[in-house]
Amino acid sequence: MKYVLMFVETEQYAKELAEMSGDDRQAAYERVSQWFAEHAPKIVHHGHLAPPHTATTMRLSGGDPVITDGPFVEGKEVVSGYAELEVADLDEALAMAKSWPACPVIEIRPLT
Amino acid sequence: MDEVHVELARVVREHAGRLTACLIRVLGDFAAAEDVVQDAIEIALRRWPEEGIPDHPDAWLLTVARRRGLDVLRRQANYRDKLARLQWPVPEEPDDRLKLIFTCCHPALPETAQVALTLRTVCGLTTAQIAAAFLVPETTVAQRITRAKRKITDAGIPYRVPPDAELPGRLGQVLSVVYLLFNEGYLTSSGVRPHAPDLTADAEFLASTLAWSMPKQPEVLGLLALVRLHQARIAARFDGAGRLVLLKDQDRTRWDHDAIADAIHLLERAAAHHRPGPYQVEAAIVACHAESPSWDDTDWAQILVLYDMLLAMAPTPVVRLHRAIALRYVQGPTAALAELDSLVLDGYHLYHATRADLLRDLGRHEEADAADRRALTLTANPAQQALIADRLRP
């Protein structure tokens, strides 16, 4: 089955990352690269999103499209990246998510 | 429940889970298999009370499930063909029901759905029976089950016993569902009946199924011992008028001492693995009470040691509350009350009822009555309400 892991950043996590020394931040990035390398055979593709201040939302419900600045939900938790997986079942996706070394929230959804 | 229905529930419980597990194996579809078995159970519950329980309830259920299944699944040729070829007796796989329990208690399902789905799929309860047991509308239970089954299929929740690496966490979830079920049956959280023996029987059945399949998991044995130690003393818990009798006032000759000895033997088997856990320790605490010839002979010092162990494993306010009760008999009510005053458990009836007890010991009657009145507003169990109301009566 195919799943998408949606990596969710929190304000707290962004703050911790910002406060890290250069070396620590470099090490954190390396842990993420390592995770992607380790699971490469199961990852179809993945991407990192630019920060929420770059987001634009368009609402198509009723009449003319309404374009607004910012993500579709304003909140302290924002999707910051994703990885599409090809694995046997939810447990395998959960096992991969469990070893994710960066942002503290992950939503796991199957692709239909 | 009358005798016929108790027997009916027992027979269904014994066979429903096996049949569901077997059909999932044959059909490869959790929801379809569950629907078909549930359908057969509904028919059995209508017909068996009149016609009697058949000699081979499992063969009967399979025949009906297969016939109804061919009907229900008429649009899915794939399932129909597989079902049509299915003959009784079906080959059993020892861990089929275990897979079923682990799937129903998957952490990706909401906890209320885990309990409902386990009761329906593994124990063969109908939606109506689950709704009645938990005092929620039948449509709510039906919705929870439908959503959970859809999630199992759509989100790809596997039908299997988790591999060893994942087992500790997953087993903990399964045990907590069984324990939750037992607690609800032991002392209902609301409603007209103070306890629900059918639910405690379901919980014991689940715990023993787990223990049979996983005899080397000490916490599974610990939970089964805990459930059986409580079950063994059930006859003395209520008086003739259905009023709750406190442990210190119970007639201990009415306890089932053979069952207590068996449960303690089980606990010793668990302890031999040298991997203690909260269920084993809780069972050991209950065993202390169960082995004590009288209230006055209770070994409170030993119980306090066990509570300290439990607290180290599960540092929750509720464990601290229970530990404080033991502390009262070791160090006295003042020490116990001080411990209670440091807890944040304002929404829990037992916290206030225990405070009331201690305050009364210390001669602070007005405060005790106030605490009891607070406890009264926090429990919806009729037997507990009656017990507290009695204490408040001048």
- Indicate the overall shape of chain B: elongated
String of helices and strands of chain A:
EHHEEEEHE
* Unreliable runs of chain A: none
Q: State the shape of chain A.
A: flat
Layout of secondary structure:
The complex is a heterodimer of chains A (112) and B (394).
Chain A: E1 2-10, H1 11-19, H2 22-38, E2 43-48, E3 56-59, E4 66-69, E5 77-86, H3 90-98, E6 105-110
Antiparallel strand pairs in A: 1-5, 1-6, 2-5, 3-4
Chain B: H1 3-27, H2 30-51, H3 57-72, H4 77-84, H5 96-104, H6 111-121, H7 127-134, H8 138-154, H9 167-186, H10 197-213, H11 218-231, H12 257-271, H13 278-291, H14 300-313, H15 317-331, H16 333-341, H17 349-361, H18 365-378, H19 382-392
Helix pairs in contact in B: 1-2, 1-3, 1-5, 2-3, 3-4, 6-8, 7-8, 9-10, 9-11, 10-11, 11-12, 11-13, 12-13, 13-14, 14-15, 15-16, 16-17, 17-18, 18-19
Features:
heterodimer; A: 112 residues; Alpha-Beta Plaits; 3 helices; 35% strand; B: 394 residues; mainly alpha; 19 helices
Task: Report what the structure shows.
The complex is a heterodimer of chains A (112) and B (394). Chain A is an alpha+beta fold. Chain A has one domain: Dimeric alpha+beta barrel (Alpha-Beta Plaits). Chain A has helices spanning 11-19, 22-38, 90-98, and strands spanning 2-10, 43-48, 56-59, 66-69, 77-86, 105-110. In chain A, strand 3 (56-59) and strand 4 (66-69) form a beta hairpin. The longest helix of chain A is centred in the N-terminal third of the chain and has 17 residues, at 22-38. Chain B has 394 residues and is mainly α. Among the domains of chain B are: 1-93; 299-394, Serine Threonine Protein Phosphatase 5, Tetratricopeptide repeat. Chain B has 19 helices and no strands. Chain B has helices at 3-27, 30-51, 57-72, 77-84, 96-104, 111-121, 127-134, 138-154, 167-186, 197-213, 218-231, 257-271, 278-291, 300-313, 317-331, 333-341, 349-361, 365-378, 382-392. In chain B, helix 11 (218-231) runs parallel beside helix 13 (278-291), helix 14 packs antiparallel against helix 15 (317-331) and helix 17 runs antiparallel to helix 18 (365-378). The two termini of chain B are 37 Å apart. At the A-B interface, helix 3 of A face loops of B.
